[in-house]
Amino acid sequence: MWVEILCGLILYKVIKRFFYDDDILEVESSDSNALFSVSDRLEKLYGGKAYVGLRIPDADTGTRQNIDLVLLTKGGAVVVSVKNLAGFVLINADGSWSCETKNKTEHLPNPVEETRKQASILEAYLEQRGISLPEGYLSCKVILPNPKCCTIQAGSFPPEVITYDQWTQQKPETKTMFSGWLKGAFGGGKKEMQESIQQNLHFTLNTAPIWDRVELKGKYVLGEFLEFKGKQEDLHALRNIKRSKVSRLVTQKTSMLGFAHSTLQVLYSPRDYRSEGASASEWEEVCVRSSTEVVFQPQNSTKVRKFKLSSVISMTLSA
């Protein structure tokens, strides 16, 4: 009996491995989830708009600089680096960080210096697009949102670092912990200049390169959309969903089509650089088999993932 149970478990894992590679439970997306959780909370605490998963061109290196998020409020703009560290975190003599757990020690280059560099690259990119920021308008922060993160000698961390304990203390009505972070960069009588910069920043950040993203059930995955996989007629129906034409798609409820297979409604928004997205009346619709797959290359991973469209809530594509 036990041999049969063991063989059954092995067979189940083999089948799952080869036929259900898109299993949501196997997706390592905790860092992306932490990133979107922080962005949502920042918007609730301080208002404004958080732009997540930016890939800003760096003219000096010819590459793209990853920026976790940029929070844009009436008081200024903040480049935020989210470090989803779990373990004991301490600062080394050279400014680098070490995160120690029971099984390993992870070494990180100085996150504050990295975030300052990201802010500098972002500012240069904005200048290339015709936006010159006033001195002090752009600042940076490093946030440690993981409850399993323990900071040793928290007082030794630079003021740019927000530890987990400090992060949990933030409330909409009390912003003392972030005093000086969102300070205004304009003096009195410059309201029109501030509003003009705000408007230009929103447009520029909204059209800046980003990581593609897939929203699954309770999870986010950042990376690069590669293609769809499925029946030829489904691929033909999805032919217009490409980054040059579409900014976002969402899936709707499934319905039965005879007894052969179930179908899924896919609504997609035509790309429009003049605004932040299409209105509900502008969404277009196609119906495909729910078994159709999204082929996706996650950020910082060498493994290509396949997600069934029935598991996908939405997908956003960079220009």
TrEMBL record:
PROSITE patterns with a match to the protein in the record: NERD (PS50965)
Domain of life of the source: Eukaryota
Span of domain NERD: 30-145
Pfam family, one: NERD
InterPro entries: NERD
UniProt-recorded name of the protein: NERD domain-containing protein
Species this chain originates from: Cannabis sativa (Hemp)
